[in-house]
Write a structure and sequence with these properties.
The structure holds 2 protein chains of 2 kinds. By secondary structure, chain A is of the alpha+beta class. Helix content of chain A is 28%, strand content 31%. Chain A has helices spanning 46-54, 96-106, 111-124, 140-152, 170-187, 198-204, 222-227, 232-237, 351-369; strands at residues 7-14, 23-30, 35-39, 61-66, 69-70, 81-84, 158-162, 190-195, 207-212, 215-220, 242-250, 253-256, 259-262, 272-278, 284-286, 293-302, 307-313, 318-323, 332-336, 343-346. Chain B has helices at residues 2-28, 45-52, 54-87, 91-106, 109-123, 129-154, 157-165, 170-199, 202-207, 215-225, 229-264. Classes of the chains: A alpha+beta, B mainly alpha. The A-B interface holds A 54-56, 75-78, 81-83, 85-87, 89-94, 102-103, 106-107, 134-137, 143, 150-151, 154, 167 and B 156, 158-159, 161-169, 172, 176-177, 180-181, 183, 259, 262-263, 265-267. Chain A: Residues 7-238 form the ABC transporter domain.
Chain lengths: 370, 267
């Protein structure tokens, strides 16, 4: 029972009128007790997925299961999920206690029970003693907590969070990231978190679904997605990248920027055209003669923790470097990188094909070593 | 600085022009001379006479009953009407409904009164209490709608989503979220309907029948018969009553607005 997916989407499509679908034939499963993040630019369909799970909208086609039961026809007020809304949606005419008690009152619980549960929920979000405050007297961060308390007091199996941190300032946002993560671990329920902020997604999630144009581009752990993006979109959206055109000579040998390099990717056709991703922080600055690639520094930006340096090589390709070293504009420098820093992407590959290829050449690699 | 003074003087003059006739009228309601010129002596005779006039007292009572009944009923109808318009998804349908509503507000009372008169005669409703009440309800509903609708539109739709998410059904969403939220608008609509009904003349004049009259119609017929300072006394009382209503309305609105302002700071 515990292995069964708590949420399952089967070929779900959502379309409004004649517009292109907001969500196109999406299938996935979510396990119990994990922290999932739906990540993507605005209009990618991430909030649509959330509203479909909540039951606030109905799918145009496809099936949605919660806890193994088909819920297509179950209205929102009968589903065992609760939502923390982007604008918190707290009821302005009720105080903190009544806001949190709203769901319990509808379930017609006994007065004493309501009192106890509300107090417990408020303690969970560190808002003890705020019961009688009006909503307008609370700060943004406190409202956020009230919204969370109001959702978790109903003991949902799944908590949906619709960009709940976007209205907070940077410092508070980082704090809340830790708190949400900790809250999820203490409650042990499934969190589905929607955001367009890749840093937030990387910091908090067990698993990330990257969405674009109503399709899930890639799913995986934060490190998987960061280290092995499946395509140009994911590589660009998650972190910063140098993306270059290249050619796969054979397994573990790739050509780009006019040179050949050993790499750790395989499973391609000989001489296949590919795209190469090298993260800016994987590039190391060396004297020109020691570098694998020679470039000229074009500009340098101070970013606080690091410098962002923009360079061009002889072919005119742009290279972005993140480094703590300072260089001078106009200098010739060398760039060094490990074979592991090169990530090769096949153009137009789907997630299934990507996973299959990864598996195949990993096995092969193990066999070669043996 | 000079500009400020000019604008203050202008404002003062405007208010004097607007209020002078009313105060002139009120002033002579205390005149023992019985004429609107040459103030002789202070007297409350006209008021005394007013309060001994049982016919007039019944008319006052009629007016108040009509006003209260019609504003209560039209508030209920108007609130549901506003919610219905708000629920309409398609934009052109929404603005069409709203236009129908607004036409009734701006169209001349004479036309509304005349058309009601024709309708009541055709349908066979006897002119009197019922016809006046029905027509007052009819012209008050659009006013309530227009007072309530902005409140609804200001309400974030995520409040409804949140209520649904927390298990509320349609009825609970209405009673626990929508109605409490729009309460200030409902009060405003109610008071507007009340004042419109209290001082309506044109529509009532058309649809009232033998033996039934409201204050404004009565004052009109008194004035036609010849000037008596009775009218001044009556008008003074009416004016004071309206002032009290306005002040009461003001207090309710500011008290509620204290909340609404806090809401605005939410984002």
């Amino acid at each position: 029972m515990s292995n069964q997916a708590i949420i399952r989407f089967e070929k779900v499509t959502k379309q409004y009128d004649e517009d292109p679908p907001v969500l196109n034939d999406v299938s996935f499963e979510m396990e119990r007790g994990r922290f999932y993040t739906l990540l993507g630019p605005s209009g990618c369909g991430k909030t649509t997925i959330l509203r479909l799970i909540a039951g606030l909208i109905e799918p145009t086609s496809g099936k949605i299961y919660i806890d193994g039961k088909l819920v297509n026809d179950v209205p929102a007020n009968k589903r065992q999920v609760n939502t923390v809304f982007q604008d918190y949606a707290l009821f302005p005419h009720l105080n903190v206690f009544e806001n949190v008690a709203f769901g319990l009152r509808i379930k017609k619980l006994k007065k004493e029970e309501i009192k106890q549960k509300v107090r417990e929920a408020l303690r969970f979000v560190n808002l003890e003693g705020y019961e009688n405050r009006e909503i307008k007297e609370m700060s943004g961060g406190q409202r956020q907590r009230v919204a969370i308390a109001r959702a978790i007091v109903n003991e949902p199996e799944v908590l949906l969070l619709d960009e709940p941190l976007s209205a907070l300032d940077l410092k508070l946002r980082t704090e809340m990231q830790y708190e949400l993560r900790e809250l999820q671990q203490r409650l042990g329920i499934t969190f589905v978190f929607v955001t367009h902020d890749q840093e937030e997604a990387l910091a908090m999630s067990d698993e990330i679904f990257v969405l674009n144009n109503g399709v899930i581009q890639q799913r995986g752990t934060p490190t998987d997605i960061y280290d092995e993006p499946i395509n140009r979109f994911v590589a660009n959206f998650i972190g910063e990248s140098n993306i270059l055109k290249g050619r796969m000579i054979q397994d573990y040998l790739v050509e780009f920027a006019g040179k050949q390099f050993t790499c750790v990717d395989g499973g391609f056709n000989p001489n296949e055209t590919v795209e190469i991703v090298i993260r800016p922080e994987d590039l190391e600055i060396t004297p020109p003669e020691k570098g694998k690639i020679q470039v000229k520094v074009d500009s340098q930006l101070f970013r606080g923790v690091h410098y962002e340096i923009c360079c061009y090589d002889q072919q005119g390709t742009e290279w972005i470097i993140h480094t703590t070293k300072k260089v001078n504009v106009g200098d010739d420098i060398g760039l060094y990188f490990e074979p592991e820093a090169i990530h090769v992407m096949r153009i137009g590959e789907t997630e299934e094909e990507f996973d299959a290829r990864l598996e195949a050449y990993h096995e092969q690699g193990v066999a070669n070593e043996g | 600085m000079k500009k400020m003074k000019l604008s203050t003087i202008y404002l003062f003059i405007v208010f004097v022009i607007l209020y002078a006739p009313i105060f002139y009228l009120m002033f002579f309601s205390f005149n023992s001379g019985g004429k609107m010129y040459h103030f002789e002596q202070f007297t409350l005779d006209w008021y005394r006479e007013l309060f001994h006039d049982t016919r007039l007292l019944i008319i006052v009572l009629n007016t108040v009953i009509i006003a209260l009944l019609s504003s209560v009923i039209s508030t209920i109808l108007g609130v549901f009407g506003a919610i219905a318009i708000w629920y309409v998804r398609k934009n052109y349908q929404k603005s069409l409904l709203l236009s129908f509503n607004n036409v009734l507000i701006v169209s001349p009372d004479v036309i509304i009164g005349a058309s009601f008169l024709i309708m009541f005669t055709v349908v066979g409703i006897k002119l009197g209490f019922t016809s006046v009440l029905l027509s007052h309800i009819a012209f008050s509903v659009p006013i309530v709608v227009i007072m309530v609708l902005p409140k609804l539109q200001e309400m974030s739709s995520s409040l409804i989503d949140a209520a649904q998410d927390l298990g509320a059904g349609r009825r609970e969403i209405l009673t626990k979220v929508i109605l409490p939220y729009i309460t200030p608008g409902i009060f405003a609509g109610f008071f507007m309907a009340l004042t419109y009904s209290l001082d309506d003349f044109a529509v009532t004049f058309f649809v009232t029948g033998n033996g039934f009259s409201t204050l404004s119609v009565e004052i009109y017929s008194l004035a036609r018969r010849g000037i008596s300072l009775n009218i001044n006394a009556l008008s003074t009382l009416l004016f004071l009553f309206t002032i009290i209503l306005v002040i009461g309305y003001y207090f309710i609105v500011t008290k509620r607005n204290g909340r609404a302002v806090g809401l605005g700071a939410r984002k």
